[in-house]
Amino acid sequence: MSADVAAGPLPALAALFAELSMLAIGGANALVPEMQRRVAAQGWMGPSEFAALFALAQAAPGPNMLVVTLVGWRAAGWSGAAVATGAFIVPSGILTYAVSRLWHRFREARWRRVVQTGLTPVTVGLVMAAGVLLCQAAATDAGTLLVSLATAVLMLATRLHPLWLLAAGGALGAAGLL
Amino acid sequence: MPDDSSESSLSAPPRLGALFGNFFMVGVLGFGGVLPLARRMIVEQRRWLSPAEFNDVLSLCQFLPGANIVNVSVSLGGRWHGPLGALAAIAGLLAAPIGIVIALGAVYLRYRDVAPVAHGFAGLAAAASGLVLATALRIASPLRTRPRAMLVAAVALGALALLRLPMLPVLLVLVPASIALNRREA
Q1: Within-domain flag for B107
Q2: Residues of B whose CB is below 8 A from A137
Q3: B99 vs chain A: nearest CA distance in angstroms?
Q4: Do residues B128 and B162 share a domain?
């Protein structure tokens, strides 16, 4: 790979994930629809590969935001992983660092509760959209759709650790049952 | 009970090494979501914060952009040791998971044409999408009695999942609208 090609996607990765970093209100899951759309538009991967990498980030230990690292790695190897991760962490990290120091003062302020109350329903909608899009990408037939819905029901109705549910889905697939 | 830690029984703030080491363990062991484990470590095991202080930090971090748990580590590391503390906490949290997730990604890319591996990842992805659906329903349930909040959530869902609109314009319209619609309920 020439240096030219290697440097190709890095600026685009940095710009995309720095922007997503500042949009990620409500955590990494809320970002999934936008990330899936933008990553496909760049030609880095389609929705089903994105869904598989997101699943990896969920199954592996650590925060789900590591799907960002995987997208960068897939687009441009190790330097892509480093650039995407850094670009995603640094802008929101600096903001958090700065705001944390002021926050205590406004703890009881009414405007803060008003903003929080208004943000929550938007976040709920974003995470629902993430679930629907991931489901569309991952549930490609009756078997996988059943796994997706059964996982959601078991997660809501039982106290099973999510890792067991992920392992069950992977095992059913690997055994050729899906 | 570990959860009753009052202000008086809190430990001294951690040194840099302990900050890195404890967040490292949370990262390594944090399968399927790190936040519950981080709370247990910070509030119940190490007693660096009271439950109320932790909720205060968490609500700030949910309100700011970025991954919630990453923001929590930056906020606490920064509170105790300035920029170095923020770096120590975030490096501890992410070091091992980044290596592990890339190793798994390499396995996926190399063997995804092998049928059992491909089907295994398909099943894994289906289950992962179910987990996100369940999370959405769980955080939506407190909104059940608030029709205006449900409306906002439904519009966000439709705009992003059905119409596939870009997120920034959707947020620029919906966030102010939602704040205006829901302000009486705050």
Answers
A1: no
A2: 125, 129
A3: 10
A4: no
| Residue pairs between chains A and B whose CB atoms are closer than 8 Å | 381
Q: Which residues in A lie closer than 8 A to residue B55 (C-beta atoms)?
A: none
Using a CB-CB distance cutoff of 8 angstroms, which residues of chain A are in contact with residue B108?
A: 52-53, 56
Residues on chain A touching B119 (C-beta within 8 angstroms): 173-174, 176, 178
Number of structural domains found in chain B: 3
Q: Of B65, B126, B157, which is closest to A132 when you measure between CB atoms?
A: B157
| Residue B106 falls inside a structural domain | no
Å between A9 CA and nearest CA of chain B: 18
C-alpha dihedral (B48, B64, B38, B24), degrees to nearest 10: -100
Give the pLDDT score at A26. 73
Same domain, B132 and B174: no
Q: Give the domain range for residue B18.
A: 1-101
Angle between helices A47-59 and B68-111 (to 10 degrees): 120
Helix (H, G, I), strand (E, B) or coil at B142: helix
The answer to whether the Cβ–Cβ distance between B56 and A59 falls below 8 Å is: no
Q: Which of A162, A176, A173 is nearest to A60 (CA)?
A: A162
Contacts for B29 with CB less than 8 Å, ≥ 6 apart: A61, B37
Say yes or no: B42 and B120 in one domain. Answer: no
Residue of B nearest to A146 (CA): B126
- In this prediction, does ipTM exceed 0.90? no
Within a domain: residue B27? yes
Distance CA B136, CA A151 (A): 13
Same structural domain, B11 and B45: yes
Same domain, B150 and B73: no
Place B53 in a pLDDT band, splitting at 50, 70 and 90: confident
Residue B132 and residue B125: Cα distance in Å, rounded? 11
Neighbour-count burial for B32-45, b at 16+ CB within 10 Å, e otherwise:
bbbbebbbebbbee
Residues B66 and B28 in one domain: yes
- Contact present, B141 and B112 (Cβ < 8 Å): no
- A127-166: pLDDT as tens digits: 899 889 989 889 889 999 999 999 999 999 998 888 899 9
Say if residue B126 is in the same domain as residue B93: no
One-letter amino acid identity for B159? A
